Amino acid sequence: MDLNFRYELLAPEIAVAVTAVLVMFADAFRNELKLKRNLLPQISLLGLAVALVLSLMLGNVSDDFARLVQVDEFTTFFRVLFIAVTLILIIGSHEYIDRHVNHVGEFYGLLLFSTVGAMLMAGARDLITAYLAIEILSFSLYVTVSLSKNDPRSGEAALKYVLLGGVASAMLLYGLSFIYGVTGSTQYTEISSALSAGNADFETALILGLALVIAGLGFKASAVPFHMWTPDAYEGAPIPITAYLSATSKAATFALFLRWFAGPLLPAIDHWQWILALLSVITMVVGNLVALQQHNIKRLLAYSSIGQVGFMLMCITAISEQTGSALLLHLVGYLITNLAIFMAVIAFYNRTGKEEIAEFKGLAQTNPYLALVITSGLFSLAGMPLLAGFVTKFILFQSVVSAGYLWLVVVALVASTVSLYYYLQVIKQMYLYQPEDDGNGSNERWSLTVTGYLSTGILFVGVVWVGVYATPFYEFADKAIAPLFT
Amino acid sequence: MTEPDALALVAVFLIPLGTALLLMVVPSTERSLLIGITALSGFAMFVLSVMIFLQYDFEGAQFQGVRAWTYMENVGLLGENGIQLKVGIDGIAAAMVLLTGIVILPGTWVSWKIQDRMKDFFILLYILTAGVFGTFVMLDMFVWFLFYEMALLPMYLLIAVWGSTRKEYGAMKLMIMLLAGSILIFTAIFAVYAEAGLGTFDLTQLYGVQFDENFQKIYFPMIAIGCGILAALFPFHSWSPDGHASAPTAVSMLHAGVLMKLGAFGIIRLGFQMLPEGGAFWAPGLMFLGITAALYGAISALRQTDLKLMTGFSSVSHMGYVMVGLGTLNVIGWTGAVLQMFAHGIMTALFFLLIGGMYDQAHNRDIPNFSGMARQMPVWTVFFVIAGLASLGLPGMSGFIAELHIFIGAFRAYPLVGGLAVLTAAITATYLLRMFSQAFFGEFNDRWEHLRDITLAEKCGAAVLAGTILLMGLWPSPWVNRISTTIAETIPLVTL
């Protein structure tokens, strides 16, 4: 069989990986070469920008690399998404990283490596490649979670994450081996045709394999009951990594969900559909209910993101081209919104060093802009109009109803309404109460740094843009999902 | 007569939205600039809504000023004309647009008194107003609901930040109940879209779909209850008195005056017009809840001593009439229901304006604490009496026209309900007249020596509202013509 080794297809991944290596070298030889500290984020941004351009240039290609990586619109969609997330993240949090993170060089390097892993997860067309991509992403994150300076929670979080993550990876791998055993291939296309042909003899093995795969992926996406690591890891990690866990790590898992469950595993839909429906209901309910009693903003957002995962799992349950494109659109809206909140929280932390919800008191008076960004972000997560969440959730829910899962959506609507209650608790602190001492012995007005304004500003505009005119994003998503269903 | 222009319909919700955006960049210290901008904007909305109402030609087409701009189509689950920005009004919407325009003008004026964060207040108030206008003029289910939610969203902050007495409790209760209603509306919208299978949210196209009868019977009550919560439909009204009591003046005015009508409007637009057979099936139920609310609200109002709570329960009672009117399923009852939406909106706005004007000075709203106020605040008393007389349905006032239609309609459909409705009107007269005699007349209480009559802005605002009450009471045909023709021609299940 002739394999196609067009390395230019992997150009974005290569560009990001090379940048990661460069950043680590620059950090290692910083003293010898007398480099400035700011150089590290600058190199990273440059490399990511190049990778972004390269991904867009590959936008209309539809080809595979050595039957391992598929480059199509779907891959491009996620490449652009992941690169953009990392770009914004570095712009918004380089001050935080400089001050509150150990081993800055390794931190940037691992962040970039994890981006490579995420991009490959979206592009993989072979189980082994996909598994390797997951591990690239996960291992980078295990380390970065532990890099918080002077925070004992960080080490604990990393240990919990790596131990549970290891178990999940083992389950996933075991599940994949069952699927390989049943179908005789690791190639998506061949798995699909083998399962379509059907063989009742292997049914038990297939179900076992599917259950293990779902458990493994459920862990990565922090679906209930595999979510136990999430709040602790979110709380202990440096805030940029918390943001990254809630954004790229989640979206990459759903890219994989889509690739697998709309492709190779689709013929076995009767075996997994009910598992996912169940998982999605439990995740929505538990995530949103437990969020009600959180005091720490990072833990609150952890549980709220668990709730969001429940909404997204509905789409996988009711998988079709329509729900797929709705899911991609929702991912865009969710990523922009979540990052907007996190960037604002980072800016707040940079100034005050605080992260308890009660400590946001009076922010509307000391920094009305930041309060506006956080408020619109939270309202967007709750699905309020003129903000991204309304449109993307509406279309997501409608697509699931159109696919015949009205009861799932009713649960989701109730859960979504509950979520507004705890978002309002944060908003209440900012608008209803008088400011207290902000950690610098004063409660006067303060402003953000230039990069702080830049990152929150771009994301705020994004939240409103998707909310007011989501059409281009939906069209992009619709085009991206098409290759999966042809 | 000419049709209203589509661009005017777009402008009417873009003006408040644009003003809200503009206010964001004005520094909050520039009070006079803020007042200037809001004065202009409020006046523009008023003029525009009067123009739209007058231009609506009741002999013309059902929907006028119709125009659609494509928003999303042929993508994902959407087909041709999937989601559009489609505007257009019928006679009912025309009356509601006018109502909003008339209420927001004095609402703007009285809010200039606010000292604390006035700029933020106006931003939220105008977002709410844009939501209300948008809901009335939109003919696309998705955009309709977007604006509907947009009108609810700012309520929490408006009440919780600028309100009084148990404001956090009132705001949260209101928000949770209204959003619970939204769940039902959401569900119904999703189900309707999926069932119709047209790939479009265009309401006029959905009106043409013949939905399965059982489907209609299941989903009509969802819409009726979902929207009904906002219209204080019994037994989902309990947020309303608390919410009104704790809201700041302008918000109470807009909320009781306009927002509650949004709920009733939703029952007509999404409920009766889209699912007529379901509506016909459940109409007696609606009527039963309506008359219960009317009686219950009136009896509760008898027991209240807080002026705002009394007005809040009186609103529940009056909105009950609207449901009774809708439940009659005849043209006269329906006309009465829509007239009542308008009339109640104006008079309750006047009530809240006056109560606010007094509370700001006295910091007290307990009726037994006052007496002989007519001597100290004569202008205030006159306007209060006008609102009260309209509320109890005195001939020559707007309330009479509306209630008369409802009573006739109710007697035709269910004479017993008609009788109970008249009884309710008698109870209304009792609590209002008793309040008048306690608070306005009798011996003056020296404790209120320091009270001044209401300010000029409040007098002007009250004059606009009282003028509307009298105008509609003495010359109701502009309203009756527009509303009754629309109902007779376009609501298929309503009989003469």
Key attributes of the depicted protein:
heterodimer; A: 486 residues; mainly alpha; two-stranded antiparallel sheet; globular; B: 496 residues; 20 helices; 74% helix
Question: What secondary-structure arrangement, pairings included, does this model have?
Answer:
The complex is a heterodimer of chains A (486) and B (496).
Chain A: H1 11-28, H2 30-33, H3 39-57, E1 63-65, E2 69-71, H4 73-100, H5 104-123, H6 127-145, H7 152-183, H8 188-197, H9 203-220, H10 229-236, H11 239-262, H12 269-291, H13 297-317, H14 321-352, H15 363-366, H16 368-382, H17 388-402, H18 406-432, H19 450-468, H20 471-481
Antiparallel strand pairs in A: 1-2
Chain B: H1 6-25, H2 31-55, E1 64-72, E2 83-89, H3 91-111, H4 118-137, H5 141-152, H6 155-162, H7 167-196, H8 203-207, H9 213-230, H10 239-246, H11 249-272, H12 276-303, H13 307-328, H14 331-362, H15 373-376, H16 378-391, H17 398-413, H18 415-440, H19 456-474, H20 477-490
Antiparallel strand pairs in B: 1-2
